[in-house]
Amino acid sequence: MIPYGRQTISDDDIKAVVDVLKSDFLTQGQVVPQFEDALKAASGAAHAVAVNSATSALHIACMALDVGKGDIVWTSPNTFVASANAARYCSADVDFVDIDAETLNMSVTALEEKLDKADKAGRLPKVVIPVHFAGIPAQMEPIYRLSQKFGFKIIEDASHAIGAKYLATTVGDCAYSDIVVFSFHPVKIITTAEGGAALTQSDELARRMRLLRSHGITRVPGELEDKEQGAWYYEQHCLGYNYRMTELQAALGVTQIQHLDEWIARRHEIADVYDRELARLPFILPKRRNDSYSSLHLYPIQIDGTKTRATRRSVFDHLRAAGIGVNVHYIPVHIQPDFGRFGFKPQDFPNAMKYYGRAISIPMYSGLTPEQQMTVVNELELALAH
To answer: 302 and which of 90, 161, 358, 371 could share a cystine (Cβ 3.0–4.6 Å)?
Structure first.
């Protein structure tokens, strides 16, 4: 099986994890701070808070921004459910902004129109969560300008986009947001097996998120209310969670991040081949924008129904039968059964639905060989002939 994405694990990665297994600390040691330092160096953020998943990072980001009951959070329908669920964990109301048909990210035009209507209705969002789908940065500069006009906070869901760049910034430096979230799931650019991180330039937001990832507990002397106790002493200052990253995960992250630029460059080489080989076939290919540098987490193609009678289902089934583990990213969040009770209808976000109806994510990972890639191309051509 050729998967749509997979991790690359080296002897250095294995040695780093084994070294931690032989050490005194499997959790809450010095390796997590080392990984956080590496994230800060790679992104330009002042603070990085490593946690056990990107979902956890999104949750503590919402909590740090005081999202709660009665608040409204907007995100993209073209994302994994975690982007919206993080706000629901805080008892907030969730809504969506349709995507741009070309970038597949949150549409700035749709966002501005929705904000104008919400302003008149007194229903503005407290937080907007743009998603950098497939590694292509969302149009953060105009989104940030809208945040200044309408008064909302921004969390960038950059689960797909570590190593990406936008305008003169690196995704993760929070130039246009309050908090940026990364994912280190095995199919992402780098992996910690499971894991995520929330990055910010704000000392206060970082302090809150560190509390929230570990039961709301602090041992920092300057933060304690009772400063007369001994070295054993700790205080719970808020209701937090056990969202800590282990030393084992962080050790893997420290070695993985050293290959970040190399692996993204390889993904661009793979995308160049797909762009060339698939241009003659009836597919709509992903666009790479001049104002940004994609991390190319995914390479989603769309079946162009005006040029072929093949359907997404027929192409998908053919590729799976041929041993190619394609996938679909994503089923729009608003049509999930659990969101139906909020009154969303499929037609509410037509661009997201149109994209979903014809999308397939084909293999894209740095370890994909030229021979495997040409197998994918050849099977796509065969799928269209059936």
So the answer is: 358
Query: Which residues, in sequence order, are bridge partners of residue 198?
Result: 49, 181
Omega prior to 330 cis, within 30 of 0:
yes
- Rounded CA-CA distance 276/271 in Å is 9
**pTM of the shown model:** 0.97
Instruction: Write the CA distances from 37 to 102, 124, 361, integer angstroms.
Output: 35, 36, 33
pLDDT digits (tens, 9 = 90+) for 161-181: 999 999 999 999 999 999 999
Pairing of strands 359-362, 299-303: antiparallel
pLDDT in tens, 349-385: 999 999 999 999 999 999 999 999 999 999 999 999 9
**Euclidean distance between CA atoms 165 and 10, whole angstroms:** 26
On whether the CB atoms of residues 243 and 60 are closer than 8 A, the answer is yes
Greatest alpha-carbon pair distance for the chain in Å reads: 77
